Give the backbone structure.
Amino acid sequence: MTYAVTGATGGYGSLAVQHLLNQGVPAASIVALARSEAKAAALKALGVTVRVADYSDPASLDAALKGVDRLLLVSGSDPGQRLTQHKNVIAAAQKAGVKLVAYTSITQATTSTNILAPDHKATEETLKASGLGYIFLRDNWYIENYAGDVAGAKQSGVVAAAVTKGKVGSALRSEYAEAAVKALVAGVAGKTYELGGPLWSYPEFAAAVGKVLGKPVKFVTVTEADKKATLLGFGLPEGVAGFYAALDTSVDAGTLAHASSDLEHLLGRKPADLEAQIRAVAG
Ligand SMILES: NC(=O)c1ccc[n+]([C@@H]2O[C@H](COP(=O)([O-])OP(=O)(O)OC[C@H]3O[C@@H](n4cnc5c(N)ncnc54)[C@H](OP(=O)(O)O)[C@@H]3O)[C@@H](O)[C@H]2O)c1
């Protein structure tokens, strides 16, 4: 049985490779797909096979997926390109005779109004129509998304977001990767997992940050425009600042406020609670 992981030089993908090894999958049965061979040096040192492939280069994907049985398709990071890129990976998986593809999607992808959801929904639909075995791993937010907020609160005593009521069910990126690997190794096709930790509100998040930092931290609601202006002040480009500010509005619409025990079931334990998550990113 040969497993492959795309985006293996990224945060999530490298953790997934490590979790495959932790699950007892031999290094010789793991193929790590990377854009850059140089960046994959640490993966090579683990003894796994590194193949260079780019989501935008179908021929490289065809070669990289030869002999692969089960694939963890880690969603791409370029919002403008990634649906086409995911379709390229799925087409290559069909040609290579891959039997099962697990895809990292988003909370309630099919009905979500989150600005990130359309690519995920369309990728899920493409996979379903492909005839390949599929598993959908609908990840809530990584707590790692909030590392900057925690660092900022250390200085200012404030967490600010354009959110009034929307809740989030974050978890550690490593927990999502571990759950993905467990689902892939179990190998049951046709499953959709809504993955996330306990739901929290932003005032609860600020209070938990305060507990971890050992100082009072208050939550302040700002407008989406204010949030964008702050991010521009940090030097983010216009489009990126606007995108992250708009994500707050998506969160406020409740797109991540979905409670589920799927993560706990796949992990076989309770995921880290909010304070433990914050400790992990507080540095
Ligand atoms: N749920 C959440 O809160 C959340 C947060 C962040 C991201 N995400 C999603 O989850 C994915 C994994 O997250 P992450 O933290 O691991 O992100 P990351 O560290 O940026 O990793 C993304 C990986 O995708 C690879 N990649 C990007 N474009 C590619 C292309 N054209 N061809 C081949 N590989 C390509 C990158 O390669 P290089 O190493 O060469 O750059 C990298 O290995 C992200 O891509 C994004 O879709 C979800």
